[in-house]
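Quality-control log, excerpt.
Job 1 of 2 completed; input and output follow.
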Amino acid sequence: MNARRASYIAFLAVISLALGGATGKLAARQQSSQPSQQPNSGGNSGQGQSMPGMNHDTPGMDMSQDMLGMKMDQSADEKDQQVEHGAMDAMSHMHHHQMGAHMYMTKLRTPATPADWAKADEIAKELRESIEQNNYMDYRVALGNGFRIFMPNLPQPEYHFTSYYNGFLESFSFNPARPTSLLYKKNKTGYDLVGAMYTMPKRVTEDQLNERIPLSIAQWHLHTNLCMPPAGHRLAADYTKFGLTGSIVTKEACTEAGGTFYPVILGWMVHVYPFEDSREKIWAQ
């Protein structure tokens, strides 16, 4: 169990660190193809943050050095096993919101005005229409259009089919028809689409989140207060203290324990279930 938890934490850390290089290369590619395009000044001009599904074989990621305990000189099978063991724990926790100090969720603003509901209804409508027009109910079409399954061989309540390019674009502009991830549940023969996920960089303000999707309707969330165990001691570390379910939630306590503290990992995330039969279920988190 300790080995599984250790690789889980390494997996999350690799995601958050490595995407910086991937995003830079995407940005360079974007600027090269559209040299006159500039990010707007409304706080969305930062680097895109990582999304669920980013793994060690993602194009554009420089994974040539050891990162936080994950040795890059392991065999492919060993690395795959390490990542898969980490993902198994990660996916059992990452979108459960009973994580105390390791999860921050925006508070619902009250009251929800008719204008707020009209905006949220329009977002859900555009998302629903995009899914139908692109035939994303068929998961094979999503795969053909560049969405990638995060750890398809691991049991998960929902599988994230992620477009990393969409996630990059979300750092600059919002298009309800262009989600970062499509969410599917597994069935006996494939996958059934149930929803989608939008993302924003972790550096943006809650007012900027509110501009995209009213915070009186939807609650965005961040994964917070990660204390990584000391390097070289991760397999034997006490994971009642370290990690995203551990008791250490402050930088001071993490430093005292010899760990490395990350106030926030990944970026803002919000799920939408546009085919549900009520507004509350559509925006349930």
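Job 2 of 2 completed; input and output follow.
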Amino acid sequence: MGSDKKVIHNPIPSIIHMKIFCFTTIIAVFLMCCSFGIQAQTTQPKPNKVCLDNTEQFSIASKYVEGETYIIQVGLPIGYSLSKKSYPVLYVLDGDKSFGMTKEIADWLMWSNEIKDIIVVGISYGKGTDAWWNRRARDYTHCRDTIMAKGAFLNAGGADNFLSFVKNELFPVINKNYSTIQDSSAISGISFGGMLNSYILFAQPEMFKGYIIIAPSLVWNDKSILKLETKYYDNHKELNKTVYISYGSLDDKDWIVNPTYEFIKNIQMRNYEGLKFVPQIFEGETHISVYSTALTNGLKNIFKR
């Protein structure tokens, strides 16, 4: 006869297996969610670039500067689109680095009624820092330096071609497309840009009414700009311009401080008829740190209400 013994199953292993299965499933789901989250983050579109209000941009391919297409940035005063007024224009060298700063400082000063409403025009290259650094050396120097910078800046000496671009290609576009006061324009520049503005002042002074000259590299080629000023004075006793010139006391003595101080003293000694000449030295400022402070004061002198 067979036995009628009952078989008793132990439920504990099944429960343990079920718990392990559930735990493993939860971990898998969690990892999948994390994976989807990371994938979603990495596939999100790139953030938009910051844009400045009341600005426009276009390009001009120059026939005077071989192979160069300049990027022109235009900053308009608040209310420009509804206004019937005409405005003075400030042309800004080193636009790649300086347009945004200049436009915003001008906006603050216009907003507080410390300067006239103006149009700010930046002249840029738009091809990155290396291209900007190289091409400014070409465009902002009137000759090569055979002494202090001998062997460097081998593309130097293109200022006259650049100024032909400004006069014959940029000015007509700006004056045609914007409401400008053509005989009230000014130019702003630092370092090589300040040297270029000093060169324009005595080589082609009719180009601008106002000049903001910041930390100019006036040692260039045995202080050739100082010699140009002397030559100008030999034939002209009048200079109906407004000139603001400045530098920081901590700037390089040989390149900036000493030749600029000499330049200032020479001009003061001339006593040019019609010239409003405002020199300013900022104590404790370097070649770079002086920029924003000098620019602010330059704007207040050139475009004073």
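Post-run check on job 2. The beta strands are 55-61, 69-75, 89-92, 119-124, 186-190, 210-214, 242-248, 276-282.
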